[in-house]
Amino acid sequence: MIATQVAIAPARTQAARLAWLDALRGIGAMAVVAEHMLPWLMPALRPYWFNLGMYGVLVFFLVSGYIIPASLEHRGDVRSFWISRLFRLYPLYLLVIGLVLVMAIWVPVRMEVPRRPSSVAAHLSMLLDVVHMGGVADPMWTLSYEMVFYLIVTALFVGGVHRRSGMLAIAFGGAAVAAGLVLSAPLLPGEWPAVVTCVIFLAGLVCLISGRFRTTAAYSLGLMALVLLMFGSYVPWFGAAILAVMFTGTAIQRWEAGTGGLTPVVVSAALVAASPVWSIQAGWWWVQPDVWITTMALAGGTFALGMAWRGRPIPGVLTWIGLISYSIYLLHHPLLRGLNSMMGDLRGLPAALSSAISLGYLIVLLTLSWLTYRFVEAPAQRLGKRISRSLRSPQEASSQG
């Protein structure tokens, strides 16, 4: 009994220590929901001095940059890391794809999604945006950059150069500025990048998990991700800027651990802020310097506030929303499209009625997200852990036990 209590106590301490990250995920998820919900339900409340959705996405990317490399390094095992990632991301992702396809009976799939096999390939690899393919659910584009980050971080880890996060943040920030000056469209056009990428991705994952040709696979996948990021993305400067933000999150974690300084954080932030200023592809309202920099500052400030709040009690509602944030993120847009299809244009309704519909939508969204977390995400993650344990060699099990 005492041994059980001792084992449970560190787990609870770890959960409490990382509660601020869950809170940030919750804030990011709800910001993205607000960005998509307000134009359809309460357009007068949508801010234009910063971009709510991009603010939420940047918070997410900073959190991923902070925690993902640390998770891989803590595990010290590429196989268990990738099994964890696959069982974390794909079950709900595939469920939402199925939901959207069923809804297509009365809500047509987004026009940005090609009706061709290349689209299937892009969805299988999850590298949608970097092979210039639209996702069946609009928010899926960010998963492309999460996957690119995982592939690059894995290659760096296998190569033993994973601690150079500050340099990488600056390098991607510089690449964002340079790409904006010279690139106006993907240099790898057409459908073939999606198909070729899917084949390489699936073969590479088999190697990473099986252990056969693992080093070659890690380097190949990392190089593929880098090439796609810079030459296959819809907006190359933006893709590089996202990776700069993610490695900035890693650099912050290095600084916190005492293995790096804050100079790379400042330099990369300045480069990301400047990246759309002279870019050929910078005609959207949310990348104008004042809006873009304000959005970045708010996201960075939110992350800094979350770090400062560590060790203090975190509001339970924020950690709960953070726990189900992946479900919220993927489900909210299909639900909005379904609501719009059923009820038509809601923008001209009286404020009281719009507020009531918005509240009802949020209640349904949070309820469904809790259910999908409870019955899809959590069981899948537990299964992934069991599979990881079953594949460990006796030496690995003893070293990590």
From TrEMBL:
- Limits of the Acyltransferase domain: 19-374
Record bears the keyword Cytoplasm: no
Q: Where are the transmembrane segments?
A: 48-68, 89-109, 143-161, 168-188, 194-211, 223-247, 316-332, 352-376
Recorded GO CC terms: membrane
An example of a GO molecular function for this protein is: acyltransferase activity, transferring groups other than amino-acyl groups
For this UniProt record, the keywords arranged alphabetically read as follows: Acyltransferase, Membrane, Transferase, Transmembrane, Transmembrane helix
The molecule here is called: Acyltransferase
Gene Ontology terms: biological process:
polysaccharide biosynthetic process
What species does this protein belong to?
Planotetraspora mira
